[in-house]
Amino acid sequence: MKLNIIIPALEKNKYSTSGDLAPWGDTTLLEWKIYQAKKINNVNNIFVATPSKKIKALCKNLKINVISRKKNISISQLHYIVSKKFKNSYLLWLNPTSPFLSPKIINKFIKNFNKVRSNHDCGIISKKENEYYFFKKKSLNFDSHSFSVSRKKVSELIKITNGAYLANAKISKKKKSLFGNKPYFFQVDWLSSLEIKTTEDLNSFNILIKDYINKYQE
Question: What is the CATH number of the domain that holds 27?
Answer without folding.
Answer: 3.90.550.10
